[in-house]
Automatic annotation (TrEMBL):
It holds the Pfam family adh_short. Keywords: Coiled coil, Oxidoreductase. The lineage of its organism: Bacteria, Bacillati, Actinomycetota, Actinomycetes, Kitasatosporales. The keyword Coiled coil applies. This is Oxidoreductase.
Length: 303
């Protein structure tokens, strides 16, 4: 589709939250939403990196209505605190963007495998806790950033935290499958409400995700290789963020749609999606398991 940031409609009067907005796709998404008049909350884990992104955004969009709030998706106490502080303010757009990619095995503050815990469970809990604010807004949307690497594998419903066999790329792919299953089930449950759930993938975009594993391993060689790959092969963050901005703002976006470049990079359109990500039974089982693991139940949302 020939759609660019110039096609984003006027967003004055609308409020958005973008997780992981301190860099990469999240930052570009927040900046372009602000440029079109939305009030944007940058939900970031690090105060230092969040402050830097916030100041950069104000430099680039001086008229921006922006705010920084701390949110650590690897800690459900932080997720609950963020949602509690939000209060009754209507929320028109939640962009579940933050994530980890192919990192060495670790656990979150609540004991979940880190990629599954941050990429899926943290966003599952955040969305559920912000549901009253989303329902209070007219035409609200939840956009969750998945990946074409969800094609690496379906979730293992019996071993969601990869206790038996942790392979970091497979764990990443499964967490991105979980993002799509979450979107599928949320779209089904929200069908009777004024709430749209959609998913996207950025293709191969130049973000900080590719550097995470190398930095955690303290491998300068791997970090140089990742940087070279980004420089030679990846699309810039401005291009990688287009599917998210499209799903977040364009008219005609449909529930449970999956938008992304047809290849690793290129124009956004309908993206290839594995059949297991639209399996009703698996999506429901993951939803129920996520409720049990996080303790977050979507009050008022039909089952």
């Amino acid at each position: 589709m020939r759609w660019t940031a110039r096609d984003i409609p006027d967003l004055k009067g609308r409020t958005s939250v973008v997780t992981g907005a301190n860099s990469g796709l999240g930052y570009v998404t927040a900046r372009e939403l602000a440029r079109r008049g939305a009030r944007v909350v940058l939900a970031c884990r690090s105060q230092r990196r969040g402050d830097a992104a916030f100041n950069r955004l104000l430099d680039e969009v001086p008229e921006a209505r922006a705010e920084l709030r701390l949110l650590d998706l690897a800690d459900l106490a932080s997720v609950r605190a963020f949602a509690a502080a939000w209060g009754d303010t209507p929320l028109h757009l939640l962009v579940n963007n933050a994530g980890l990619m192919a990192v060495p095995r670790a656990t979150t503050a609540d004991g979940f495998e880190s990629q599954f815990g941050v990429n899926h469970l943290g966003h599952f809990a955040l969305t559920g806790l912000l549901l009253p604010a989303l329902r209070a807004a007219r035409g609200a949307r939840v956009v969750t950033v998945s990946s074409f690497l969800h094609l690496l594998g379906n979730i293992d419903i019996h071993d969601l935290n990869a206790r038996r066999d942790y392979r970091r790329w497979l764990a990443y792919g499964r967490s991105k499958t979980a993002n799509l299953l979450f979107t599928h089930e949320l779209a089904r449950r929200a069908a009777a409400l004024d709430l749209l759930a959609a998913a996207v993938h950025p293709g191969y975009a130049d973000t900080q995700l590719q550097l995470q594993a190398a930095r955690l391993e303290r491998s300068a060689v791997k970090e140089r290789i990742a940087r070279a790959g980004n420089r030679l092969l990846a699309a810039p963050p401005e291009a990688g963020a287009m599917p998210t901005l499209y799903a977040a703002t364009a008219p005609g976006v449909t529930a449970d749609s999956f938008t992304g470049p047809g290849t690793l990079r290129g124009r956004a359109g309908h993206a290839l999606r594995a059949p297991w990500t639209v399996n009703d039974a698996i999506a429901r089982r993951l939803w129920l398991a996520s409720e049990e693991l996080t303790g977050v139940h979507y009050a008022g949302l039909p089952a």
